[in-house]
Amino acid sequence: MTPFTTLPDLALRTFGGAVVAASDESFAEKESLIRPGRPGFRPETFSGKGQVYDGWETRRRREPGHDWALVRLGVPGAIRGVVVDTAWFKGNYPPHASLDAAAVEGHPSPDELLEAAWTPIVPLSELKGDAERLFEVADERPYTHVRLNIHPDGGVARLRVHGEPRPDLSIHDGLGLDLAALANGGLVTACSDAFYSAPHNVIAPGLARHQAEGWETARRRDGGNDWLVIRLAGRGIIRLAEIDTTNLLFNAPGAVTLTGLDGEREVPLLPRTRLQPDTPHRFRLGHTDPVTHVRVDIHPDGGLARVRLHGHLA
């Protein structure tokens, strides 16, 4: 079975996630929980509050209860697994944690979230210091928020909430949208190679700041080509394709091909077309057939910063 960690981190700050409230953040700020990348550490680096940690750390509790942090997912979705990472917290990690999830419409305030109906998705579980703990989640319901509970207090470096995007697309009724976008429910379901970076980066929000924020494959030596398959937000007709090689200066593909998939049927969208390094490319597509997936073939290998597939839901 494919590990859940290959799915997008729905809480990631660069996907629009936010830590909207916490019971306490006396030693280290709550916003660190959803930062991209591995937590860093510089020993014997002190502020007025003590050793500086790249994570969220609460004070030592002297009263009953436990600490918590409320996280708004950047992309609502079905949660497949959670990673609680206590990296660098060795004498000050929480011995136990649990996680709840909620589906709340609109733009709730922290006080409204605290009153929401929460569903336990990870029971009270033991943590270790300076270690990642992975928890699988079996729940098909889409959620918009999660609550990390630490018992009773301490520090957590990162919280990763991996899952399948399932946003409400009704706001796009009658409008066009990027059918491939992670934020709209797109998902990379297959990929030939992810040696340097994750393929779902190509459908992430915003622009890639450097090549590690795109998708990059190893160098091929077998005469074939690399590819990925994107499940669209819904069955739709694609009118405009954007293939962005920004930041890929010496490792951009030489060409790209786009093929739509609708069940067993293949729909040619873009014939093999030359690409330039470090360039956003835009191609108008002339077909009128709805598709559910798009296969992106790069020739022979290399990297893409972003793929955008604009159109209408069928």
What does this structure look like?
Pathway: Nitrogen metabolism; (S)-allantoin degradation; (S)-ureidoglycolate from allantoate (aminidohydrolase route): step 1/1. It comes from Nonomuraea maritima. By secondary structure, this protein is an all-beta fold. The chain has two domains: 162 residues, Jelly Rolls (Sandwich); 143 residues, Galactose-binding domain-like (Jelly Rolls, Sandwich). Helices cover 2% and strands 45% of the residues. The strands form five sheets. Strands 12, 13, 15, 16, 17, 18, 19 and 21 form an eight-stranded antiparallel beta sheet that branches. Strands 1, 5, 6, 7, 8, 9 and 11 form a seven-stranded antiparallel beta sheet that branches. The chain has a two-stranded antiparallel sheet with strand order 2-3.
**CA-based gyration radius:** 21 Å
What is the average of the pLDDT values? 95
Element string (H = helix, E = strand): EEEEEEHEEEEEEEEEEEEEEE
**In the residues, how many domains can be counted?**
2
Structural class: mainly beta
Distance between the termini: 32 Å
CATH topology heading of the largest domain: Jelly Rolls
Q: Which sheet architecture does the biggest sheet show?
A: 8 strands, antiparallel
Give the total of beta strands. 21
Tally of alpha and pi helices: 1
CATH superfamily of the largest domain, by name, is Galactose-binding domain-like
Catalytic activity: allantoate + H2O = (S)-ureidoglycolate + urea
Domain Allantoicase: 16-165, 185-313
Keywords: Hydrolase, Purine metabolism
Family: Belongs to the allantoicase family.
